[in-house]
């Protein structure tokens, strides 16, 4: 490394990632530095492709290099991403970087919708995503993805059978609904359900994934405990509505995930059905927002319990229009996915 390259590296070592609280050089986020006759190029490798600070970090790097070498150089910084993980030494599902549980204390708050939209939003940023429907008694994913009649393949590899998830929009999907007859009711006791869930997790050919989202059943049940005992989970996303009944139940879910036998980090909380906007009303128009289930109850609960608040989702008629068809990514979830990816990156750096 020549003197000019050393000077550039020294300048970039003064640029900090505001989330991880370390400089970009020590975090190994600067790659492929090349100094040409009149151009300086390098790659800024982010810890998530959904990073909301991407442009800010890029401009900070350009400014740092200019301060070190002057403004006569052309500076070309490309941006790449590599999803981080804290599960690299995990023997169970080693090909999956992050396992994210989507949970709620109460049913009917839109947890499966949030799980579906987060999967779409994360995949939108170019990462590999899987979605597992863990609600064995009331699976919603087949209906939400318009594939109620889909069936998975079973393959044999090295004297062991594996389930092959179906794939939609580049996302790997698995639900008990793909293994049973339509409208069939499962009447299982807890141990049988836990065994089936464990099989869905461990005996599935997930391949390499950056994120596996697990849509848990509502409440606090055997499935939650089985998940904690089966694989190390990166963290949990809680979903609630602002309604008091939902908030009471999500407080119980928080207590459950903090129990010694479970101890799953809570990555953040999403407030769904936060408000309804009068159709065609300008955003700034007074009275255009209607807080049907109460105002900002989820946001206040997150602040009370010291949980990151990932954002609010309004009541959207687009959800109803997507029934029995493949879902379409809705704009409000892109920011939620960015905030979630940011929280995961911070968690993995701890």
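^ Assign residues to that structure.
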């Amino acid at each position: 490394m020549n003197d000019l390259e050393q000077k550039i590296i020294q300048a970039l070592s003064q640029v900090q990632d505001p989330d991880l609280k370390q400089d970009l050089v020590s975090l190994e986020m600067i790659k492929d530095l090349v100094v040409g006759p009149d151009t300086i190029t390098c790659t800024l490798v982010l810890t998530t492709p959904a990073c909301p600070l991407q442009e800010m970090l890029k401009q900070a790097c350009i400014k740092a290099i200019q301060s070190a070498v002057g403004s006569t150089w052309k500076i070309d910084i490309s941006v790449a991403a590599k999803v981080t993980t804290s599960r690299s030494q995990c023997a169970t599902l080693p090909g999956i970087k992050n396992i994210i549980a989507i949970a709620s204390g109460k049913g009917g708050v839109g947890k499966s919708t949030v799980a579906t939209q987060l999967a779409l939003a994360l995949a939108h940023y170019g990462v590999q995503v899987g979605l597992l429907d863990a609600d064995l008694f009331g699976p919603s994913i087949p209906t939400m993805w318009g594939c109620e009649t889909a069936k998975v393949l079973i393959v044999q590899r090295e004297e062991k059978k594996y389930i092959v998830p179906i794939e939609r929009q580049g996302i790997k999907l698995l639900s008990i609904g793909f293994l049973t007859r339509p409208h069939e009711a499962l009447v299982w006791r807890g141990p049988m359900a836990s065994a089936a869930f464990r099989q869905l997790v461990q005996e599935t050919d997930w391949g390499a994934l950056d994120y596996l989202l697990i849509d848990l059943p509502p409440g606090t049940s055997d499935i939650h405990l089985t998940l904690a005992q089966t694989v190390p989970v990166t963290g949990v996303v809680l979903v609630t509505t602002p309604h008091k009944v939902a908030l009471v139940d999500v407080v119980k879910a928080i207590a459950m995930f903090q129990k010694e036998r479970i101890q799953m980090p809570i990555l953040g909380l999403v407030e769904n059905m936060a408000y309804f906007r009068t159709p065609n009303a300008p955003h700034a128009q007074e009275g255009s927002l209607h807080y049907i289930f109460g105002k900002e109850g989820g946001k206040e609960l997150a602040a009370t319990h010291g949980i990151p608040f990932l954002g609010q989702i309004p009541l959207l008629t687009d959800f109803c229009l997507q029934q029995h068809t493949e879902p379409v990514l809705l704009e409000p979830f892109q920011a939620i996915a960015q905030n979630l990816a940011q929280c995961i990156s911070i968690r993995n750096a701890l």
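The mean pLDDT is 90.
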